[in-house]
Amino acid sequence: MLTRGALRAHLLDVRLAGPVATSREASLRSYRLFAARDPRVLIGIDPEGDWGQQELLGLMAERCGVSADPHDTSGQDVIDPDRTLAALDAFADRLAVVAQRRGPVLLGTGHPHRLLGFYAALADALSAAGCAVLTPAQGRRVDITTRFGLRTYNLDYVRGVALVREPAAGHAGGEPGAHTHSPLPVRTALAAAAEAGGPLPELVIGDHGWVCGAGQLGFEAIGPADTDDPALFVGQAEGSVSVVVPLDDAVRSEYYRPLTRYVLNRACLSR
User: Can you tell me the distance from the alpha carbon of 121 to that of 267, in angstroms, rounded to the nearest whole number?
Assistant: First the structure.
């Protein structure tokens, strides 16, 4: 069993926490864009508060451990590993609750190259516990505005985890999928589930637009977020997002495996 101390050392060793690859400049730029209500950074959240740059910086310092000094404008950003561990505990606790109820779940990612394995292991464990792992809107078209213009993707599922892929990007069920922060895929999936008469997920697990889009629609949503993803932390502060785990969301996929073991063990879902 992976101890809390060993996991903390791992977080720092592979830079999931501590000094991370995300630059301070990137984080501050995201806070400026969020304060300006840029939809590319809101990713599905409709904030109730004003959330100016200084308020966002204070929130991210509280939830992630980044510097609260607005004059600190360069270098690498920092995530407090103890905040990551506390959030992982809360994340695992929510998995345990839905597993005990055998509630239906929906998992999706905009970072399939990095996080697909993490979510797929959760999907396997929840399925083994009796939860229905939902796959609504399989193959449905999703049009997403990107910096390159409007792009058409198809919603697909790999090992129970939703992602989007370009229509010509390999066979259905294959890898990899496309990187996106858009909330449109989860909106498409949830709308299809509702149109079919359910079931609807008791818990949505994912990142970026999957968490924000689902949370804004009133579904319980949990997932990881980096220091340049203020939307998830604002959603958590305002009550539309249940749990956010601060960590670098773009390290090598195998670096997330100890986190998987830790949360599944805490949730009593290890096999």
Answer: 13
